[in-house]
Amino acid sequence: MPKREKYSHTTYVITYVVTPLEGDAFQVSESSKKKEWIVQLNDSTCTCGKFQSKKYPCPHALAVCEKLKINPLQYVDDYYTLERYYKTYASTFSPVPELSAWPEASGVPTLFPLPPLPDVSEDEEEKEEYWEEDYWEQEEEKEDEEKKCRRILSYTL
């Protein structure tokens, strides 16, 4: 008899309170964490930012749809439809030629990747310092002095 695997499922339940505001705006509150968001269904926006960036309803927009008893699928972007998927891959794709066959690029700027983000273990002050303008000015001065930095790659296509 085959061994049966046990799966651990964790279910989270979040209760949102939906309050109508002016026009088509709604305030969605989570009482346990005292957080709130503003959802506007007609504009497909939420103050959490996920509704407009992912182009489908975030949990707060879903709560509003549930409150209004409307289908949330009407707020999902056309991008996610099968029809759009099929249109994307309907045309023939030609294979990319060998790198040596590529034409020389002219007028392309040299790209400099950003340095890696600081570790999570660092102090908050060090993290904030990393993003301040003074940090970047100091980095530019170091680059001028070193002329060649091993950390930064420059390349052109």
TrEMBL record:
GO terms for molecular function: zinc ion binding. Residues 37-69 form the SWIM-type domain. Residues 120-144 have a biased composition (Acidic residues). It comes from the Eukaryota. Residues 113-145 are annotated as: Disordered. Keywords: Metal-binding, Zinc, Zinc-finger. This is SWIM-type domain-containing protein.
